[in-house]
Amino acid sequence: MKKLIKIFSVLLLLVSAVVTGALATGPAATVSAASSKNVKKVASGTVLKKIKKSGKLVVGLSADYPPLEFTKNVNGKNKYVGVDIELSKQIAKDLGVKCEIKNMDFDSLLVALETGKIDVIISGMTPTAERKKSIDFSKIYYAEKNDYFVINKADKGKYKKTSDFKGKTVGAQTGSLQYTVMKKHGLPGMKVKGLAKISSLLMGLKSGKFDGVLLGELNAKTYAMNDSSLALVKSTLKQDQMGNAVGVAKGQKDLVAAINKTIDKCQDKDLFNKKFIPAAAKDMKTATKKSNNSMTKYTSYFVTGLEYTMIITICSVLIGLVLGVIFALMRLSSNKLLHAIAVCYIEFLRGTPEMVQIMFVYFGIGMLVKNLPALVAGIIAIGLNSGAYVAEDIRSGINSVNIGQTEAARSLGLSQAMTYRYVIFPQAFKNIWPALGNEFITLTKDSSLVSTIGVGELMYQTGLVQTATYRGVMPLFITMCIYFVLTFLLTRLLNFLERKMNLSSSRA
């Protein structure tokens, strides 16, 4: 047992060295990409070569911005549609490759681009001076003239002009130009609140959490057109820059030139007004029909999300259990080095937010391990986090076993490893079973955090349904019910197993 622990500790030290290197050169997930000076940049002139070699263009976007990018239910399957999707396909076609869409939160796109997780950003992004410090942009492919405050129609008499929002609470998408504009040029007393999803902002508006939500012109008019309870107020806040462009990593002049060539062709043929926007309008009209808004049509979305949720939960539990046993033994070890490593691991993982850990594994460690899938990164991060908590549960369980049990086993000639295996662990696991069961239930719910890096679990699929149906509350209610049923059944199963263990021990 001691030999096994020592071998593992050496491996752990090597991993720690790698992680330290990633911290020194990788992105901090919680810091904006624009201000992150330590991000390991994508090498100049490599992205186009990578696209050609792989045969696909990986486009990053946040698919909650109709008519530029949103989702549509086609025979129970999710389809990305909109103006930006059409442009993405056209760029990929001109490059002679396939187009792959990677949907994630808008404020994660810059980091994803800088770390090579995506090839380009085509998500209604405005090329501001701040963003240009981190990435390059193509020419403007679509120019919007104004922003609009989205308000509840019942408040039309209350809000008629921009100055009416003085001292009010206004929402905007985190990382968006609208959020930046209000932070820099907002009205006196205006409280700016940012959320990652526009669907969440509009739910907040309808529930009275916001007095208004600031959106781009096309986006605002689209939501108002498809929701009769909303109205618009034209914004006169100062704008430093307007229009949407394609984001590209620094030093990719050949790729920018190729994208600009496609944009020129689209503008010369007026494809945006003649083809892309009409196609998006048609998709929106289809998506907002009452017959298509029935939640039963989106059953496959919730089923897919549930499958991913269970995969993440089960794999993370197994990783957490293995790590928990190892680090519990290390913390109980008389070896000061092993004890110190275990304490550092447990305290660090329990002392940092799990979402930050997930983003660091995906964006940071993912730079060292090329093509690390988001699902795998999510499982690793949640498993590592779980291991810290399970280690403390197991340590308490081991300590709860009377020392006389160990002494008796050793006096009978059992080795230390055999003592732990046949005497200590069976009793310890029985004592901590409720705590381990609670960890299993917690992991089931914590799996929702991996939606931030684009893993298609239950909360991610819920967001797709919200965007496709323009309904915010009902998909959330269904998801909440699914989580409740799932955790309720798991609790009953764990209680049944606990009773079986108690029964078997009483017979013994």
Can you put this structure into words, describing what you see?
This protein is an alpha/beta fold and 508 residues long. Helices cover 58% and strands 11% of the residues. The protein has 18 helices and twelve strands. The strands form three sheets. A five-stranded mixed sheet has the order 4-1-5-12-6. A hairpin with a 2-residue loop joins strand 2 (70-74) and strand 3. Helix 15 packs antiparallel against helix 16 (416-446). It is elongated. Residues 7-39 have low confidence and may be disordered.
Average residue pLDDT? 85
| Continuous helix count | 18
In the predicted model, the low-confidence regions spanning at least 5 consecutive residues are 7-39
Q: Order of strands across the widest beta sheet?
A: 4-1-5-12-6
Please give the alpha-carbon distance between the first and last residues: 28 Å
Biggest sheet details? 5 strands, mixed
Number of strands: 12
What string gives the helices and strands in order? HHEEEHEHEHEEEHEHEHEEHHHHHHHHHH
Shape assignment: elongated
* Percent range of helical residues: 55-70%
Task: Give a quick summary of the entry.
The chain has 18 helices and twelve strands. With 508 residues, it is α/β, with parallel strands linked by helices. Helix 6 links the parallel strand 8 and strand 9.
List keywords for this structure.
about 500 residues; alpha/beta; 5-stranded mixed β-sheet; about 60% helix; elongated
Q: How is the topology of this model organized?
A:
Elements: H1 2-25, H2 47-54, E1 56-61, E2 70-74, E3 77-81, H3 83-95, E4 98-103, H4 109-114, E5 120-121, H5 129-132, E6 135-137, E7 147-152, E8 169-173, H6 177-185, E9 191-195, H7 198-206, E10 212-216, H8 217-226, E11 230-234, E12 247-249, H9 253-268, H10 271-287, H11 299-332, H12 336-350, H13 354-368, H14 374-400, H15 403-411, H16 416-446, H17 458-469, H18 473-507
Parallel strand pairs: 1-4, 1-5, 8-9, 8-10
Antiparallel strand pairs: 2-3, 5-12, 6-12, 7-10, 7-11
